[in-house]
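Reminder to self: tokens first, then the designed residues, so the page reads top to bottom the way the pipeline ran.
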């Protein structure tokens, strides 16, 4: 696998993981008892910490990509292992 493929696949893992990690730990102004800023939506998070999201996303995506790459190299799970419909007719 070329380094560009590795970078592209890791980036996909990172973006997907970021969307999974982002909502954890967020609280609204009402939940924290903080005064809302004029024009702020009631559902807007009051304690968003982007550096925390970046760090957790990087760690989780690195582990997930590591497992993906180890599977790619060692061939633990292949297309035949995830075929839930059985063999196609006539095969």
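Designed residues (91 positions):
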């Amino acid at each position: 696998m070329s380094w560009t493929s590795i970078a592209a696949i890791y980036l996909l893992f990172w973006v997907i993981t970021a969307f999974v990690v982002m909502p954890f730990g967020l609280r609204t102004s009402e939940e924290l008892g903080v005064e809302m800023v004029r024009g702020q939506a009631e559902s807007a998070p009051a304690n968003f910490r982007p550096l925390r999201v970046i760090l957790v996303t990087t760690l989780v995506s690195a582990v997930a990509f590591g497992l993906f790459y180890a599977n790619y190299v060692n061939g633990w799970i292949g297309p035949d292992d995830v075929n839930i419909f059985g063999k196609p007719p006539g095969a």
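The mean pLDDT is 93.
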